[in-house]
# Entry
Amino acid sequence: MDSVSVNKFRDNLNIHVEQVVTKHMPLKVTRRTGEDFVVLSADDWEREQETLYVLQNTDLMKKIAVSVATHQKNKGYKPTAGELDEITGI
# Structure
């Protein structure tokens, strides 16, 4: 994660915000008091929240683990040729 002082962040606010939004990379802003903060795009914040929800939901994590194990044993769902054509738009 890139880091910038609060003064440089303030002086170049538009540039830093544009980079955070377009590159989807958070920016750590440091302060003299040592109480730093992070700038993150709204889309990235929502994705992080969704990920945290999934990771904290034990029932959902168990279902995902079972699905992964089934898939690794080649016993997962295999679409038909027609379904594949519909999915890929061919």
In short: The beta strands are 2-5, 27-30, 37-39. Residues 42-56 form the longest helix (15 residues).
